[in-house]
Write a structure and sequence with these properties.
- The protein has about 750 residues and is an alpha+beta fold.
- Helix 18 crosses helix 21.
- It starts with a helix and ends in an 11-residue tail after the last helix.
- It has 3 domains: about 160 residues, Roll (Nuclear Transport Factor 2, Chain: A); about 190 residues, Penicillin-binding protein 2a (Domain 2) (Alpha-Beta Complex), CATH 3.90.1310.10; about 300 residues, Beta-lactamase (3-Layer(aba) Sandwich), CATH 3.40.710.
- Strands 7, 8, 9, 10, 15, 23 and 24 form a 7-stranded mixed sheet that branches.
Length: about 750
């Protein structure tokens, strides 16, 4: 009160001393028409409501003539808009504390303002818990227009004068870690990595060192050789980085054969390049996104999630950014802290991924591409694998090949020509940055017959004992579907539904397509969508392509033509316009295995601060699809016979999961699956597919493998699934089977023209 009284005395003194009546009038204005507190409160309320509504014209009309002389309308609006932009201001509200107190021709109002800001959050100014000595007071004076606000910047923040400035201090917290299902580190914020530096002329054997580095780093030997070729034999260069654990385990090899130099460094460690397409990476904020991040409170030099889980769970991993809104002199001397947000470290993610299984699969893919250099590797640009718990939807492993090094996007990378490396990833025709498991769209080929079988049997329009004679050719001319050839030109004989799936007989399914399409052209497309195809798969905010299931409506909409029997015939064997991704396939395979429940896949099991209660715990979300139990049973039994020789049939993958393999593992794990060899639109080498679940009794996991532009599914994808089963099941004690000879070393089997197996 003493401060206010002193201010009034000064103002009265100025008026008394002035000999310029107009100047006196410009300060106080003419005699007001009304001097009571009610009219002063009305002006105060109108001004504050206009601020809340960003009605700057009304606000400017309510400031004193002297203030309008000092601040043009543009200056006035600019000051408020700068504050709005800096704070990401969404809204304000205000509370009247005391007043208006009218003293002569002036009045004062004590009040507080609550700011809702994207950058700082919600804060009150002044906050009595922070600054009990600070008050916010609006002064009004009488003018010829009535009460007007004697406005200055202090009406936005007390203490803000022309010789002071607002500044937001930002501090990034420690980012959270990422762990696997067993608590093993996948990503560590302050992890130690060991750089492998080598010189060719010092190696005991260049070839041996190259091969060992390929094994240790889980990369193809040709990739390591390409790196060697960039440097002179006497130049030291970085081959890659490994964990301290791997360095200890492989020390003798690296030291004796490669004669490496180990250089440790502390960084955000991505353990062994594990699941980079799933986990993603951090990097600098792109220039075109800087304004958006600043509005959220990020400092300009912050490192943020740019892909995968690092992006999808940025808020949780990041934590709370420390922020202080301060008022300081133009020379940087602090005046007051207006608002403060304490820094809080990020939470850690605990995934459903099994690190050992994941790394084993990544190593398997690199090994397979090395082994098939003589046949399908040169034509195949990539592959993908997904392993899922059939009873929960937990993703246990998910790999896309080729992969990439996520650490190159961190500015602390020791790679000298890092921009060339990043651009190389983007320009590579193999598309190593693409997550094929979730965003690759492919025809599924004969694996789709599993889901056609289930749909047909459940519909009631096709029975399990329905017989069709499968020759090597099928004539669909009478339905406009054309003449077609099977993948096996000699045919399969007369088969029932189980035999049709076990032998992957195309004519069986083409015959079925005619009958079901005649009943209702939308029957099968609707079934496929119920199974998760052609629709978006929920995956905890991670990007997943929906693929495509053609239907009468879609072809009319996109091609302006009517649906045909040819469309139906293509669709039932996973060709034509059918496009899927491996995650959709493993999800639907798990549904068949568990008896008809379609689970949402998930990979984040829980989110928590170490030692505290989790802020999030995933709960399996499964939808029973209500399929007929007999339809499920027939489909399951047929899949189980695909991997076996029986008295009636030789399954299309029986030569991979042969009797010797089953005998060596004591028949502990019976694998049920389906081969697929999908024709491509450009008629290059087909995509090899194999989907499977195991064990046949009480299934635990579903597995899907695709290898682009390679050979038949039985020849390429099925052996990889066999290796994954060996990695997952501890009861399979047999030594790993070698890759199939002579297929991978001499050449693939030719399949019939225009057919799929």
């Amino acid at each position: 009160m003493a401060k206010k009284f002193s201010l009034l005395l000064v103002l009265l003194f100025l008026v008394a001393c002035s000999t310029d009546g107009e100047r006196s009038l410009s300060l106080f204005g003419a005699e007001p028409t009304q001097l009571d507190s009610s009219s002063a409160e009305s002006v105060f309320t109108t001004f504050m409501d206009a601020w809340r509504d960003q009605d700057y014209e009304t606000m400017y009309s309510l400031i004193s003539p002297n203030a309008r002389d000092t601040f043009t309308y543009e200056n006035f609006v600019g000051i408020y808009e700068d504050v709005n932009t800096s704070l990401g201001l969404r809204d304000i509200s205000w509370d009247l504390i005391a007043g208006p107190l009218v003293q002569g021709t002036s009045a004062s109002v004590d009040y507080s303002v609550t700011f809702e800001s994207d950058v700082i959050g919600t804060f009150i100014d002044p906050d009595p818990e922070v600054e009990d000595a600070i008050t916010r007071t609006m002064y009004l004076i009488t003018t010829s227009e009535g009460w007007r606000v004697a406005w200055s910047r202090m009406d936005i923040f007390p203490g803000w004068t022309s010789s002071a400035r607002l500044r937001i201090q930002r501090e990034m917290p420690q980012r959270g870690n990422i762990y696997d299902r067993n608590g093993n580190i996948l990503v560590s914020q302050n992890g130690t990595v060991i750089g492998i530096y080598v010189i060719e002329n010092r190696m005991q054997s260049v070839e041996l060192c190259r091969n060992e580095l390929a094994r240790i780093l889980r990369r193809e030997q040709d990739d390591i050789q390409a790196l060697f070729d960039r440097y002179l034999p006497d130049s030291e260069f970085l081959v890659g980085e490994i964990s301290e654990e791997t360095n200890s385990r492989e020390f003798d090899v690296l030291n004796n054969i490669c004669r490496y130099r180990a250089i440790p460094r502390t960084t955000r460690q991505y353990y062994g390049r594990v699941a980079p397409h799933l986990i993603g990476y951090i990097g600098q904020i792109p220039a075109n996104e800087l304004a958006s991040y600043r509005a959220q409170g990020y400092p300009e030099d912050a490192l943020v999630g740019r892909d995968g889980l690092e992006l999808a769970f940025e808020e949780q991993l990041r934590g709370t950014i420390g922020k202080r809104l301060i008022l300081e002199s133009n020379t940087g001397i602090p005046i007051r802290t207006i608002a403060n947000v304490d820094l809080v470290a990020g939470q850690s993610l605990y995934l459903t991924i099994d690190r050992d299984l994941q790394l084993g699969i990544q190593a398997m893919l690199a090994e397979a591409y090395d082994a098939a250099q003589a046949t399908w590797t040169p034509s195949s640009k990539g592959a993908a694998v997904v392993v899922m718990n059939v009873n929960t939807g937990e993703v246990l492993a998910i790999a896309s090949y080729p992969d990439y090094d996520p650490s190159v996007f961190n500015p602390d990378t020791p790679i000298f020509n890092v921009q060339d490396v990043i651009q190389g990833y983007r320009d590579d025709s193999r598309r190593p940055l693409l997550n094929r498991a979730t965003r690759g769209s492919y025809p599924l080929g004969s694996v789709f017959k599993v889901f056609t079988t289930l749909a047909a049997l459940d519909s009631g329009y096709w029975s399990a004992d329905r017989l069709v004679t499968c020759t090597g050719e099928w004539n669909g001319d009478q339905w406009g579907a054309g003449q077609r050839t099977d993948w096996l030109l000699t045919g399969h004989g007369t088969l029932d539904m189980r035999g049709g799936l076990i032998n992957s007989c195309n004519p069986y399914y083409w015959t079925m397509s005619v009958e079901l399409n005649s009943v209702d052209p939308n029957l099968l497309p609707e079934y496929y969508q119920r199974m998760g195809f052609g629709v978006l798969t929920p995956f905890q905010g991670l990007l997943v392509d929906s693929g495509n299931i053609p239907s009468p409506d879609s072809v009319l909409r996109t091609e302006n033509r009517q649906w045909s029997y040819a469309d139906a015939a293509n669709m039932v064997i996973g060709q034509g316009q059918v496009l899927v991704n491996p995650l959709q396939v493993v999800r639907a395979t798990a549904m068949v295995a568990n008896g008809g429940t379609l689970y949402d896949p998930y990979v984040v099991q829980r989110i928590e601060f170490l030692g505290q209660e989790p802020s999030f715990v995933a709960v399996p979300n499964g939808q029973p699809l209500g399929f007929d139990s007999e339809a499920i049973r027939v489909t399951q039994e047929a899949m189980c016979d695909v991997t076996r020789y029986t008295a009636q049939h030789a399954g299309t993958a029986a030569f991979i999961f042969d009797e010797g393999w089953y005998q060596q593992n004591g028949y502990r794990v019976l694998v049920c699956g389906k081969t697929g060899t999908a024709q491509t639109t450009d008629f290059t080498r087909p995509h090899a597919w194999f989907n499977a679940y195991a064990p046949a009794e009480n299934p635990e996991i579903a597995v899907v493998v695709i290898v682009e532009n390679s050979c038949e599914g039985s020849e390429v994808a099925a052996p990889m699934v066999r290796r994954i089963m060996e990695l997952y099941f501890p009861q399979i004690t047999t030594e790993r089977y070698d890759w199939p000879e002579p297929i991978w070393f001499n050449g693939c089997t030719e399949i019939g023209p225009g057919s799929t197996g």
